[in-house]
Specification:
This protein is 35% helix and 20% strand. With 359 residues, it is an alpha/beta fold. Bound molecules: iron/sulfur cluster.
Length: 359
């Protein structure tokens, strides 16, 4: 198996290079390339070609390698299918937004949570990702931003981020981050320290692992928390999210409000609007909207309504535009901050886990 140079300490990289009969300064050159996200050795133009070829035989730069790259027709979203050293595959998504360049990273290969509407869980959980494997997804996106045509479009006029830098991170890709809490924390510490990404620009999304939320409170950094709620009562939630058998909505929301109170942050609530296979509304009825209002009434939160993005392996339907707006109107009339979030890059299978399944 090839040595993954990104995983080596500076001292280990120096030894690796000198063991190949090279001077020590080569280690610094290689390290600089790797920290910029260099996907291979051939791009390292300040290193002799013979050494690049030798390195390629025994080593790889990052712990993830791009297998496939899909760009949406509006060129605002790029989805990467990545392969890990043990051939497991994960996804990450780079999104150009009005506020900067955001990357959605995976925290696990697969997922054990079994949410009925999600493609990521179809093959179960394979394993947790290491902090390095999560961080390397950011480097893949950063490399793309700095080298690709993606940059030709001017940054959004309201954008405050450097056009070439990742400015925001959402841990919302494949996997449940709070089933891999310590590695996710290690990743966030590194993203903050090494890439200067502020805590308030990092969001962790969970389906409601209460001890994991408590661990984030103990960790103490003022990141954003998103709860994937998707149902306004336990009975309905149990039908679409097995985790509801373990933690009630009351327990999850209690932990979530404790988190947001600690950091004076707005809680994000993710709510996918679903119909059943026959086209009947499932969690998108007016009654559900009223129940949801009671959960968030007078709280500092934003409800993101997400019309279901068809996953062919799952038997749901997408509610009509009228149903979506009727649901939103009920929230708005009751003073709830809400917005409809259209899935980005639907033309490239942007729903979580779709690319990994179709390969
Ligand atoms: S929605 Fe999230 S927690 Fe649920 S199965 Fe998919 S990846 Fe896992």
């Amino acid at each position: 198996m090839k040595t993954i140079l990104f995983n080596l300490t500076n001292a280990e990289l120096e030894k690796f290079v000198t063991d190949m009969g090279q001077p020590r300064f080569r280690a610094k050159q290689i390290s600089e390339w790797i920290n910029r996200g260099a996907p291979n050795f051939s791009v390292m133009k300040n290193i002799p070609e013979t050494l690049r070829n030798d390195l390629d035989r025994v080593a790889q730069t990052l712990p993830v390698q791009v297998i496939k790259k899909l760009e949406s027709s509006d060129r605002q979203t790029i989805k990467f299918l990545l392969e890990l050293h043990d051939s497991e595959r994960i996804e990450c998504v780079l999104m150009r937004t009005s506020y900067g360049n955001s990357v959605c990273v995976s925290s696990q290969a697969g997922c054990a949570m079994g949410c009925k509407f999600c493609a990521s869980t179809l093959l179960g959980l394979k394993r947790n990702l290491t902090a390095n494997e999560i961080f390397a997804q950011i480097l893949v996106a950063q490399w793309e931003l700095r080298t690709d045509k993606f940059n030709e479009k001017p940054v959004h006029p309201n954008g405050d981020a450097n056009n070439n830098d990742v400015s925001h991170i959402v841990v919302m890709g494949t996997g449940e981050p709070l089933q891999n809490t310590e590695n996710v924390i290690g990743f966030m510490e590194r993203a903050n320290q090494d890439m200067g990404i502020g805590w308030r620009r990092i969001t962790v999304s969970t389906c409601g692992i209460v001890p994991g939320i408590d661990r984030l409170i103990e960790w103490g950094r003022p990141i954003n928390l998103a709860i994937s709620l998707h149902a306004p009562n336990d009975e309905l939630r149990r039908k679409i999210m097995p985790i509801a058998n373990k933690y009630s909505i009351a327990e999850i929301m209690d932990a979530a409000w404790r988190f947001t109170n600690t950091h004076n942050r707005q809680l994000m609530i993710e709510y996918i609007l679903l119909g059943d296979a026959q086209g009947n509304l499932l969690n998108a009825t007016p009654e559900c909207a009223n129940e949801l209002v009671e959960i968030v009434r007078d709280k500092n939160c934003m409800v993101n309504l997400i019309p279901w993005n068809a996953v062919t392996e799952r038997e749901f339907s997408s509610p009509s535009g009228n149903a979506v707006h009727r649901f939103q109107d009920i929230l708005i009339k009751n003073g709830v901050h809400t917005r409809i979030r259209r899935e980005r890059g639907t033309d490239i299978g942007s729903a979580c886990g779709q690319l990994r399944i179709s390969g």
